[in-house]
Amino acid sequence: MKQKVVIRVTLNNGKKNARSKAMQVAVGLQGVESVSLQGEDSSQIVVVGDDIDSVNLTSLLRKKVGFAELTSVSPVSTEGEKPKQETKPSESGIQSMIWPTYQAGVPYYYQPSVPYYAYDVTGYNQNTCTIM
Question: If residue 60 lies in a helix (H) or strand (E), which one and from where to where?
Fold first, then answer.
C-alpha cells in the first residue's frame, strides 16, 4: 500500500548539514520512493513510498538529527490505478483458523500427570556431619 508520511523535524539546532542528514536517513529506509522538505521553514519531511515503517523512520530521525514528531500517515491513491478486485476462494477452498483466546491474558499451561516416586536410601544418616 502506497502511503504518505509527514514528520516534523527541528532542523535549526546549530548543525549546518541537518537537512541533508535527515534526507539521507529517510531515503535509506526500505520502500521509500520520494522525500521532500515542506512547510514554512522546511521543517516537515514528506516521505512517499510502499509500506513505510513510520515509527521506525521517526525514531531513526530522532537518533540522527534531533527532535522529530510524526505528524500524519495517510494512504496515497493515484487516479490512473484501478482498484484491485479481491477474489473469494471457493467453498471447498481454504478455511480460516480461529485460535482460542485466554481470559485476562493468563496463558494456560498443560502439565501432564506424571507419577511421583519416592525412594528410600539405605545407609544414609542425616544426623552425621562430616565437616565438624
Answer: helix 54-64
